[in-house]
């Protein structure tokens, strides 16, 4: 069984590993080939993100699903027959 200090150490290490696997707003903007301002604006409109303290991180799979859902809602189904 872990004592309090060991538990916190494991928790902090887990958060560090998780954050390392996620994108910052800047790296997400580069990946999507959009501006940093666009990523920040989309975040205010529901772009999936994770906040840990002052850090905001993005999971690419969640972001791509969100974008696909918004495209379908707006009638841009991507390759569907007219």
Show the helix and strand layout.
Blueprint lengths: L3 H17 L4 H8 L3 H9 L5 E3 L2 E3 L2 H14 L9
Antiparallel strand pairs: 1-2
Indicate the overall shape: elongated
Q: Hey, roughly how much beta strand do the residues contain?
A: 5-15%
- Proportion of residues in helical segments: 55-70%
Enumerate the spans where pLDDT stays under 50 for 5 or more consecutive residues: none
Structure class = mainly alpha
What distance lies between the first and last C-alpha atoms, to the nearest angstrom? 61 Å
Q: Give, in order, the helices and strands.
A: HHHEEH
Total number of helices: 4
Quaternary state of this entry equals single chain
**Number of distinct beta strands:** 2
Average predicted confidence as pLDDT: 82
Rounded to the nearest angstrom, the radius of gyration is: 17 Å
The biggest beta sheet, please?
2 strands, antiparallel
Account of the protein in words:
- This protein has 82 residues and is mainly α.
- It has a domain at 23-77.
- It is built from 4 helices and 2 strands, in the order αααββα.
- The chain has helices at residues 4-20, 25-32, 36-44, 60-73, and strands at 50-52, 55-57.
- It has a two-stranded antiparallel ribbon.
- A hairpin with a 2-residue loop joins β1 (50-52) and β2 (55-57).
- α2 crosses α3 (36-44).
- 9% of the residues are buried.
